[in-house]
Specification:
about 270 residues, 4-stranded parallel beta sheet
Amino acid sequence: MARATFYFQGDLNFFLPRHQQGVNFIYQFKERPSIKDTIESLGVPHPEVNSIVVNGKAVDFSYLVRDEDRIVVYPISVTPKIIPTIPLQPPLPKIPRFILDVHLGKLASSLRMLGFDTLYRNDYEDAQIAFVASQDKRIVLTRDKGVLMRNLVIHGYYIRETEPDKQIIEVLKRFNLSNVVQPFQRCIRCNGILTPVAKELIVDQLPQRTKQEIDYFHRCNSCRQIYWQGAHYERMEKFVRQVLFRTREHLSTKTIVKSERNYVFHQLSVNSCS
């Protein structure tokens, strides 16, 4: 039986059993498996791996594991000290688009609230997620390692946090998105774009009190949901401010508040009419 020694750097240890975390461990194998298949057999999805070093030299996913290999696997957040390296993940778009699995409905709503193109349905099959991600060049966000291990998935990330309010912070930090947030530009319900709509065009769809008190409205260009600045506005505005504050730790509070004034908080609404 052939043997190779593995060591996983940084947050890749999240995917390993405790006795393999932060230590060299032996992996036994027959024939010569690809290093990509071997890494995934150990529980680490390929989109989480950015570099691999074997016996002091960088390799790509096609490398075939040999007896006595010493292998170090690096996440996105850790760069090998050797030169040259072979980055295994293609560059992300400046403003990424997402597709989320069935476990992440609240995260999907938060991403849409912040202006990010986010596909989500509670009946997506794993194969469908992988196919759509491949066709549309979307990043897969999931709590299911099996989704990320599908060959069609190029960009993907396993959400570590279990609480929705922490998940949105995790995503913004992982993909450096705090400076491209555009709150209240998308429909939280369907991901469509919100555009201004004249009150007289929708007045027959509004509650009586809203007709009397509100003059400015937006409508989703996809599902036609109507939005206005209603009772929940302050709560949602506070949520956006807290998210931005927690993801911009290097900025002062004054700087954050100043930058938020560029957003259209005072015009876009957060209440809707079914």
